Amino acid sequence: MRLAFLGTPEAAVTSLRSLVDAGHDVAIVITRPDRKRGRGSQLTPSPVKACALELGLNVGHRLSDIDDLGVERGVVVAYGRLIPGELLERIQMLNVHFSLLPRWRGAAPVERAILAGDAQTGVSIMTLDVDLDTGPVHLERRVAIGEKTLATLLAELATLGAQALTEVLDSSELLANPRAQEGVVTYAEKLTKEDFHLSASSTVEQNLRVVRLGQAFAIVAGRRIRVEGATPYRGDELAGGSIALRDGHVAMGVADGAIVLDRVRPESAKSMSAVAWWTGARFDQNVALWT
């Protein structure tokens, strides 16, 4: 099938490769323009663009670049922008959405599923319409969340989504017979900086969910640290909002117990073990305060 592919992040790359491997004719890949990153502000392509160039595919940055290419259908995977209704009227588009619709429509479905403590999530292959993630679903696949990190879960969903996408495109029955979404609608709002801020007033479980997102941070004695890994603390009681070295572990008190910091990254420093960080920080007291 002659396709247009719209996507941007690494999670979309697996679907693009899968389409090419399956023999589909990807006429064009639409992604965001290159952005300045790192020292020297060099322009860096999106992961999808880098993959497309590697595969020798035509790349564009405007939706109008799809015009006059004779594509039969569009495929959208984490493109990052709404598709205008006028374009959807001309070209039907399939979307690989990383949730079990209608739960977690919107920008951050995997993150919100983790933060909410959902037992499972999955992928929905849906036909796009003008409203946000409301289109009918052609195929759904499920996975358990468990204690997976965001990175691990995204990689799993990317693979599952690519497989489901090619299955739908290869089946005239699945393409022709999507089902309307059923169930309670929830919205996955884009995360803000505060969503990654650990909280002494939250539970152990909720703070560990935040850590699993990969960008958790706390302010310890006025210094910001990134918390890269943590586990529940099983030792003596520790007051919420305090942090101390206990039994050879750096423990951080929260509302219903404490968490052990495994790895941290202080500002302007490399990742290190939490014990190495604590030793080097040289706090005035054996117990410090954090927020």
Describe it for me?
This protein starts with a strand and ends with a strand. The chain contains 8 helices and 18 strands. A 7-stranded mixed sheet has the order 5-2-1-6-7-9-10. Strands 12, 13, 14, 15, 16, 17 and 18 form a 7-stranded antiparallel sheet that branches. A two-stranded antiparallel ribbon has the order 3-4. The longest helix has 20 residues, at 150-169. The protein has helices spanning 10-21, 47-54, 85-90, 109-115, 150-169, 172-176, 204-212, 274-281; strands spanning 2-7, 25-30, 35-37, 42-44, 59-60, 73-77, 93-97, 105-106, 120-127, 137-144, 187-188, 217-220, 223-232, 242-246, 249-254, 257-266, 272-273, 287-289. The protein has 291 residues and is an alpha/beta fold. Helix 1 (10-21) packs parallel to helix 2 (47-54) and helix 1 packs parallel to helix 5. It folds into 2 domains: 2-188, Rossmann fold (3-Layer(aba) Sandwich); 193-289, Formyl transferase, C-terminal domain (Methionyl-tRNA Fmet Formyltransferase, Chain A, domain 2).
Summarize the structure.
By secondary structure, the protein is of the alpha/beta class. It has eight helices and 18 strands. The chain is elongated.
